[in-house]
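QUALITY CONTROL LOG
STEP: pairwise intake check
CHECKER ROLE: data steward
CRITERIA: each record must contain a sequence immediately followed by its structure tokens, with no blank fields

ENTRY 1 OF 2
RESULT FIELD BELOW
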Amino acid sequence: MKFYFLRALGAATLGLVAGQALAQGQVTPPASVTPGLQPAAASAQQPTHHEHNENWSLHFQQTVIQQWHNNLQPRYAGGNSLQARENAKLSLTTTLFLGRRLWKGGAVYFNPEVAGGSGLSGATGIGGAPNGETFRIGDPAPQVYLARLYLRQLWSLGPSEEEDEDDLNQLKGARPAKYLALNVGKFSIADYFDQNSYSHDPRTQFFNWSLMSAGGWDYPANVRGYTVGAVVEYVQPGLALRAGVSSMPTDANGPTLDFHYDKAQAITAEVTKSYAVNGHPGAVRLLGFRNQAAMGSYNLAVQQARGLGTMPDVTAARAERRTKYGFVINAEQEISPEIGLFGRFSYNDGHNETWAFTEIDRSLSVGATSTGARWKRPTDRLGVAAVANGLSGDHRNYLAAGGSGFILGDGRLDYGLEYIGEVYYSIDFPRYHAALSPDYQIIFNPGYNTSRLPGPVHVVALRVHVEF
């Protein structure tokens, strides 16, 4: 891992130099790599000049995270338990964001990506894993893969226009204030759904999995977080409706996507209402989802094990078509130009096997972020959040009987909610388009187990992020 750390730091240094040479001024990373919905009070709705349109967009990001936890004294352990002692773990992602305007309203986006490293205990043992930049992949060696390749087409539904800045997967130029959009190809479904200005991006905001996305949303993705499908958007000032159909992996948390949409698919829909309170923007989002795949039934796995006198195995209780339903309520509110609040509640029925994201069936998160303006660091960011994660009755009975999923499996379970607290501080270096972020997380009952560990887990981390 030392070799990967040195190589990553070397690449980060190259990114710093390139960023300084190619761009000037401050970079403010967006919460998403796709155009988002602006509050009605912030919408300019003024005609713009099309000669300001640009046909190309080129951006780059690199994120390196080093993470460590204290030595533990577990009373017992299973195959997917958080390890008692382990070396610090390092993760690296590097992404190129290339966009090209094709015709009026049409553009194509291409994102090759390199990722390497490992999460703590191989990203197992905790429902809300502490590093959103890691994947549950055995080989820590950096690998090149296609993250996104998709077509985006907008149709204007009115004469008013707004000006988009050149950004990640966003071309500079005029955009209709009211439009219909179709996005088709390979992307992350989280590019379009469950957005939150304060808690959505582990490269610039909170690190924890259950803070970068709604924990109870088993969102469709391969092991690296990407899917293939289509998303339709209807957007007007103050309101957005989105719906999408996308592919599920062929196996739980697997690398290969299943393109037999008649048997396996995810349907996601969301309504976003933005508003302003005394001039301060806010938004509320309601998301619903239904996933279908060859999931195993937790109850059936336990019944089969009792009949055979063995440990339950959910993979042996799979059927060709099973479903998972759920919803997310997601809110954010600016209190002042320096301070914002957010919260999420998410739920899924939890009858069948977790298939894509992580083993969380219910989750509640709340938090606040602040700029450093009060201490004369206006581009710095401070974030504080708390999370409570839980499991369905079927899921907890399965783990208590000795079963394992792809994230959890201590061999037994004395159930309790998993509690997580996180605080990070992002030190911004605008001249170099970089930020350095120390992070601390405290985790009670990791894996929902109240008796395995005598105390909480303390996780400390340092993140280096370069973007231009």
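ENTRY 2 OF 2
RESULT FIELD BELOW
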Amino acid sequence: MKLLEGKSVVVTGGSRGIGRAIAVESARHGADVAINYYRDNDASYGKKSAVDSVVEEIEALGRRAIALEGNVADPQTGAELVDAAVQAFGKIDVLASNAGICPFHAFLDIPLDVFQRTMEVNLHGAFYVTQAAARQMKAQGHGGAIVATSSISALVGGGMQAHYTPTKAGVHSLMQSCAVSLGPYGIRCNSVMPGTIATDLNADDLSAPEKLAYMKGRIPLGRLGDPVDIANVVVFLASDMAAYVNGAALLVDGGLFVNLQ
């Protein structure tokens, strides 16, 4: 069963990690996909860049894909991405606001530029792209779905994440407010809260075997999450199966949060 058949999906931070999985799974479920990426120089996909690789993977599934480079912290990026998606596919049905960074750093001596960049990408960027997509969805007149990637970190503290956790709490709050603001236009807004997912963001932090074993030991399911675990939930929230889900925040963490209590 294809949950997004004939829909147009926009994914920010879509060339790697969770964003890549969201883009590919959306295509697998029948959607055309517009991908935002920034400074893609990942050579881990052979000779192809990460964004070229994901575009080819989507096209191999029989769906259309476009990719547009841009920093979501720039207000113009969201507007340009929306315009490109409309030009390519004629509409936008779904936004997956996923782009984010997590440069771990101690609180007392965190450089101001690290704090500002984390805030601007994670929270301001989510605001800009959500506003741009919502304006287009309202103009189209047939509703839509916005799913933002928050984090379990919106609910718990982190000693090396005092600049990061507030941004994810902000994304969660943004979706709650947008659910109220945009509900009258048939636009549903929800967030996913990933737990510990194996991605580029935390590869260095989990590179030590003892740290990896510790993290797995806290998760009742006994494993780290895979990006596709998050993508599957995003596809559900974006689909008509979640037609009455609005303003929700769904933990996808293998049971980590309840085990921290």
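INTAKE CHECK: passed for both entries
DESCRIPTIVE NOTE, ENTRY 2: Strands lie at 8-11, 32-37, 65-69, 94-97, 144-149, 187-194, 249-252.
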